[in-house]
Amino acid sequence: MDILRKLAGKRRGVDDLIFDTINVIFMILLVVVMLYPMLNTFAISLNAATDTVRGGIHLLPREFTLYNYEHVFNNAQIIQAGFISVMRTVIGTGLGVLASAMVAYTISRPHFILRKFVTLAFVLTMYMNAGLIPTYLLHRELGLIGTFWIYIFPTLIGVFNVIVIRSFIEGLPETLFESARMDGAGEFVQFFKIALPLALPVIATVSLFVAVAQWNQWFDVFIYNSSFPELSTLQYELMKVLSNSNAAFDSGSAQDAFADAIGGQQDTVTPQSIRAAMTVVVSVPIICVYPFLQKYFVKGLTIGGVKG
What we know:
cell membrane; mainly alpha
């Protein structure tokens, strides 16, 4: 018996070693696959545009320069657009998450008579859309065109976010709310003192979703506020920079770029270099915010898995 146990132990040890080896190799390959495009883009953004035309840029810039970023930020609208982007992300995320959480708490209460009707009405909006023209006419009648609030109010409540938060709140012990009601706490007190603090993981997760969506949005600027430069966003301005670069490149600048590359001039840009710099500028804020929400994000992904 002792010999069999030793053989079984050795067998498990070999199996564990093989599994760990394969797992480590797979994870290393996964990291390389995920990081290489980001590092390559970063290297291209720091490389001289005329040298990038030659190709062969991988993880490190071959001819270091900051001119690509200088070209992007020399646009007079970039600073103002960046401010508007930050404001719409902060305000839109704060108000949007709070409004969605309040609606989610309301329809999660068993004593709310219209909870099923309200939930169905919200869900139907995920499948039915009036279309772009009626939506534009509605926003015009509400006086939102040409204002900052066109970025906030139309997307204030996200149905998916409401459902996610509601599922989490429904998993909380109902005895907590019953005890609070017995002590005379109203619905606002129960929401702000009990539901909201306990729902912090899912709130952080939804906040990340909303913040990314607000930061990356540019189409609403194009549709509603393209005639108001003071309300432009960073995403929209960078899209215009990229479009202008592509137009200039297609109009005959390709030959000039290649000629400059042969001459070694660095004070020029190409669509590839602008695209790389734009991607880095747009991605850095979200990359900086994500580590602070990561632990809550992981917890939030398990919502609904355990019911109280």
